[in-house]
Amino acid sequence: MRYFVEDLKNNVGKTISLKGWVYNSRSSGKVKFLDLRDGTGIVPCIFFRGECEDSALETFEQLTQEAAIEIEGVVREHPKHKGTFEIGAKNLKILSPSVDYPISPKDHGTDFLMDNRHLWLRSKRQAAILRVRHELISAIRDFFDGRGFTLTDAPIFTPSACEGTSNLFETQFFDEKMYLSQSGQLYMEATAAALGKVYCFGPTFRAEKSKTRRHLIEFWMVEPEVAFNDMYDNMELAEQFIEYIVQRTLKNRPDELKILERDISKLEPVKGAFPRLHYSEAAQLVKKENPSFVIGDDFGAPDETIISSKFDKPVFVHHYPAAVKAFYMKEDPREPGFAMGCDLLATEGYGEIIGGGQREESKEVLLKKIKEHGLKEEDFKWYLDLRTYGSFPHSGFGLGLERAVAWICGLPHIRETIPFPRLYGRSYP
Ligand code: ATP
Ligand code: MN
Questions:
Q1: Whose CA is nearest to atom 6 of ligand 1?
Q2: Residue 344 in contact with ligand 1 by CB distance below 6 A
Q3: Distance (Å, whole) CA 346 – CA 352
Q4: Which candidate, 112, 229, 365, 408, has a CA 20 to 30 Å from the CA of 373?
Q5: Are 85 and 114 in contact (CB under 8 A)?
Q6: 100 to 66, 257, 405: CA distances (angstroms)
Q7: Which residues sit opposite 356 in a β-bridge?
């Protein structure tokens, strides 16, 4: 039987063997300590002369940070800290050495850590972030799967733009020019007509030529789309969704959030109903604190911070000026010039985590918008078919997974939220 650090609590008193890496080691007089890391956890291993083989003490002297080792010993509950476990070591074997491991406990600059991302992932903090990311991915899937949604993933090679042409990655599809997907939404509109409630969850590419704390070049987006939902149904869905993924992470990942020193009192209030602001109200709020803001413009990151700082829950902003939104966004017939888009701004200045809204269902209006946006009608032939054969009101949204991870973990920068980040100016390792 193979044992992992996570299994210790059920094996107290047993002599077992563990394989992993040296996280830390130190000697003090007759006792030697070693922290063994195996990916499922870190366990202190204690070597006492007389209790362990003499050869183990000799081997101990050769240990270096991140050497691969096998240790044999007895599982004990910590005498003072109930619920934590240690190994009374008997034997120690070095499986593979580690010479001059570059990441030491001292402070390293960000560039150095990013160059060594493949090793940096072994640190407690980075592992905790990746576990929270994993929890969020399964929470996202469970939320939609539990509500009768069907996962209908969108293609990554796409012949046309959907969020504007400025940040598209061009590539080749044999002899054709093609783009990497910047959103699966248009395809979800097609599958929504087939299956009613659908979502896609996959990688998304945007050539964002700027260095910000919240833009990746390659990120993961989950995009639900529901037939016959209007903008208000859409906000309700987004609200229940965010409450579910946040509360579930709080419940299932307290240890990781503690390692990250996350102030969870800031996440506990994240339960519906979330405040909803019309763009015009939000713009007034912003104008008061940022006089240079031009009403009618999209909000910048500092503007979003002004809006979200007024609330302890995420806040929806709806009815943006149609001019700043994508061509497929439906203009409100009762408020010409305003689109039925609804974005969700996270708390604590994390800014937009969800962008969404109601889609235009009129073929005539869409044709007009496609022209206005300088897009080619023939690229959208199939998309327009959805308006020819039983057009239907429908709405959906996109959540950037990494923005959610950054917010929930309380990270200052999005680069730590994905195993191997692609940023403007960084594509290694
Ligand atoms: P922003 O204005 O912040 O650049 P956007 O309005 O271009 O975002 P949308 O097209 O609405 O973004 O995409 C939906 C969601 O995808 C966003 O709310 C955000 O969570 C996420 N997202 C968008 N661009 C990025 C990016 N470059 N890196 C990480 N996540 C992103
Ligand atoms: Mn958006």
A1: 355
A2: no
A3: 6
A4: 229
A5: no
A6: 9, 31, 32
A7: 342, 397
Q: Whose CA is nearest to atom 7 of ligand 1?
A: 163
Mutate to test the pocket of ligand 1, among 166, 215, 414 (most ligand atoms within 8 A of CB): 215
Ligand 1: residue whose CA is nearest its atom 31: 400
**Which atom of ligand 1 is the closest one to the Cα of 217?**
27
pLDDT tens track of the chain, all 429 residues? 899 999 999 999 999 999 999 999 999 888 999 999 999 999 999 999 999 999 999 999 999 999 999 999 999 999 899 999 999 999 999 999 999 999 988 889 999 999 999 999 999 999 999 999 999 999 999 999 999 999 999 999 998 876 667 899 999 999 999 999 999 999 999 999 999 999 999 999 999 998 999 999 999 999 999 999 999 999 999 999 999 999 999 999 999 999 999 999 999 999 999 999 999 999 999 999 999 999 999 999 999 999 999 999 999 999 999 999 999 999 999 999 999 999 999 999 999 999 999 999 999 999 999 999 888 899 899 999 999 999 999 999 999 999 999 999 999 999 999 999 999 999 999
Q: Is the CB of 405 under 6 A from ligand 1?
A: no
Which protein residue has the closest C-alpha to ligand 1 atom 24?
215
* 429 C-alpha to ligand 2 centroid (Å): 29
Ligand 1 center to 400 CA (angstroms): 6
Best mutation site among 221, 222, 401 for ligand 1, i.e. most ligand atoms within 8 A of its Cβ?
A: 221
Note the residue count of the chain.
429
Whether ligand 1 lies within 6 angstroms of the CB of 403 is answered as: yes
Q: How many Cα atoms are found within 13 Å in the side-chain-facing hemisphere of 321?
A: 11
Q: Output the CA 22–ligand 1 centroid distance in Å.
A: 40
The helix/strand/coil state of 319 is coil
Report the distance separating Cα 394 and Cα 226, nearest Å. Answer: 6
Q: How far apart are CA 95 and CA 101, in angstroms?
A: 16
Structure tokens at 121: 């992932």
Ligand nearest to the CA of 220: 1
